[in-house]
């Protein structure tokens, strides 16, 4: 199975870093080592209690774009396969992650969204070019419609960047279309030039704040969504695919930005949502071992919006943007660790379909949607039966769990209206699904209990080690005291002996004088 495509990109040193040491050493196009700066080093040395000064970390990704890489290289490797699949109705998401000033927006938009210079042109204008090239190359048998939406997540509110009056858009989950933004503005796009102008308007509406890191740094997550609707005219079959580009807000630590007041609040909200993203990634990687663990998609707007991308129904590419300078190496290491964790998320069956033929893709999509329909019906009937016995809130909670476990595809608060009396749904199926769900919850609880026990055990061991160290310190103090006392005794002895020898020598001298 393929996994999320994770790449790293190092921008060239900027003016502020001019003359600074570079912290990375290239191994090849996929691997490199990175040296950490003094402050982090001291911390590691303290922890390890040894004198290893040259601490290096090795990282390997699907591809590493070094300082001399070009925008076109990033597009070719990371974005082109996703855009091509979106034209064939397979959803794809491209995410840029990293500290402020690391090159996320430069990669996404280029120096300027309307920039025609091929060297600086970012992913967005290239996605637009590719989409219209693909559409124009199609015969008359297929008709395409492209719609564009643009939102930002600012202080945990989803704002429509094409209509600022919509400043709190709700995220919903649809039975067959997955995660949706309720009422978001969708602008139909007829050609590339128009798309860039529309994007330009949205970008101008982005909230920007000032920090010490980068005066133009964005304090919101920005999400660009292209929906490509495809209609095969003679078959009257309509399908659609999405390309979602996510330019995340900076991941740096609050202390380093010198943020205060409102900007500090913004930074805290950003860090919270990026932590939620990290937690979702951790849960997804762990759930591959523990089969079904709760994935906290609902902990932030960002993770809820990316639920399809991370949870399985979309192809995903993550670009970890970093500075190559030694002074930013600790932030770079934390960005790269985030990418390394994401690398371990395995794809669901729908994410690996890109290598198959169009017929395979269509067939698999039909199979998946039929299977999802059956699962949905069964889950809805279970919820309906539970509603007769339990209070509404409890049933909604169980419904949410069903959504998380992929048994129910729509929002449980609205699922009541979708419950049918279809008696054809086999009740034995229900009991199988129910017992499976209970078993998976039991398994997750058991895992938690084991973790707690393990933590307790480690805590005991650490306490014992602390006790031993205390004892050793006590003995050392006593030994030091004894040595001091001995030294003082020896000093006095030498003094007395010196005096004795002096008196003896002077007596001998007087005696010799008397005799002579
Ligand atoms: P971020 O969005 O991560 O906060 P930006 O993309 O705004 O950072 O980049 C900060 C600065 O660095 C910008 O002036 C940008 O032009 C420059 N920059 C970033 N990446 C590159 C690159 N690969 N080549 C040249 N300049 C870059
Ligand atoms: Mg930016």
UniProtKB/TrEMBL annotation:
Upper lineage: Eukaryota, Viridiplantae, Streptophyta, Embryophyta, Tracheophyta
Keyword line: ATP-binding, Coiled coil, Membrane, Microtubule, Motor protein, Nucleotide-binding, Transmembrane, Transmembrane helix
A GO BP entry: microtubule-based movement
GO molecular function: ATP binding; microtubule binding; microtubule motor activity
Positions contributing to ATP binding: 98-105
InterPro entries in alphabetical order: Kinesin-like_fam, Kinesin_motor_CS, Kinesin_motor_dom, Kinesin_motor_dom_sf, P-loop_NTPase
UniProt-recorded name of the protein: Kinesin-like protein
Family: Belongs to the TRAFAC class myosin-kinesin ATPase superfamily. Kinesin family. KIN-1 subfamily.
One GO location term (cellular component): microtubule
């Amino acid at each position: 199975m393929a996994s999320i495509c994770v790449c790293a990109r190092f921008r060239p040193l900027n003016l502020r870093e001019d003359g600074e040491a570079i912290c990375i050493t290239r191994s090849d196009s996929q691997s490199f080592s990175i040296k950490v700066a003094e402050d982090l080093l001291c911390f590691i040395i303290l922890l390890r209690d040894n004198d290893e000064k040259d601490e290096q970390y090795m990282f390997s990704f699907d591809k590493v774009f070094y300082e001399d890489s070009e925008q076109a290289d990033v597009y070719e490797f990371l974005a082109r396969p996703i855009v091509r699949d979106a034209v064939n109705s397979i959803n794809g998401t491209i995410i840029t992650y990293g500290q402020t000033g690391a090159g996320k927006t430069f990669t996404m938009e280029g120096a300027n969204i309307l920039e025609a210079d091929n060297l600086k042109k970012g992913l967005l204008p290239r996605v637009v070019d590719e989409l219209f090239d693909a559409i124009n190359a199609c015969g008359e048998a297929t008709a395409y419609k492209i719609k564009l939406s643009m939102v930002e997540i600012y202080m945990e509110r989803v704002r429509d960047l094409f209509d600022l009056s919509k400043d709190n858009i709700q995220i919903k989950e649809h039975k067959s279309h997955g995660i949706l933004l309720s009422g978001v503005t969708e602008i139909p796009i007829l050609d590339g030039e128009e798309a860039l102008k529309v994007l330009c308007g949205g970008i101008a509406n982005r909230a920007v704040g000032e920090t010490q890191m980068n005066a133009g740094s964005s304090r919101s997550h920005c999400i660009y969504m292209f929906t490509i609707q495809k209609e095969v005219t003679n078959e009257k079959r309509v399908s659609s695919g999405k390309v979602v580009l996510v330019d995340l807000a900076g991941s740096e630590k609050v202390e380093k930005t010198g943020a205060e007041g409102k900007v500090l609040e913004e930074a805290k909200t950003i860090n919270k949502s990026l932590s939620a993203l990290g937690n979702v990634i951790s849960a997804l990687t762990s759930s591959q071992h523990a089969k079904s663990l709760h994935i906290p998609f609902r902990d932030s707007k960002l993770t809820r919006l990316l639920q399809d991308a991370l949870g399985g129904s979309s192809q995903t590419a993550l670009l970890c943007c970093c500075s190559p300078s030694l002074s930013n190496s600790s932030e770079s290491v934390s960005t790269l660790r985030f990418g390394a964790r994401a690398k371990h998320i395995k794809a669901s069956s729908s994410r690996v379909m890109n290598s198959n033929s169009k017929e395979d893709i269509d067939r698999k999509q039909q199979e998946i949607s039929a299977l999802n329909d059956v699962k949905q019906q069964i889950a809805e009937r279970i919820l309906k039966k539970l509603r007769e016995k339990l209070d509404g809130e409890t049933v909604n909670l169980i419904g949410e769990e069903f959504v998380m476990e992929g048994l129910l595809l729509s929002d449980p608060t609205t699922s009541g209206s979708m419950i049918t009396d279809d008696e054809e749904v086999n009740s034995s199926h229900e009991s199988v699904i129910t017992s499976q769900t209970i078993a998976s919850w039991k398994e997750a609880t058991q895992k938690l209990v084991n973790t707690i026990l393990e933590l307790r055990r480690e805590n005991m061991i650490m306490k014992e080690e602390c006790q031993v160290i205390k004892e050793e310190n006590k003995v050392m103090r006593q030994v030091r005291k004894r040595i001091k006392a001995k030294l003082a005794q020896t000093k006095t002895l030498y003094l007395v002996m010196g005096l004795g020898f002096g008196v003896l020598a002077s007596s001998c001298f007087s005696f010799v004088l008397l005799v002579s």
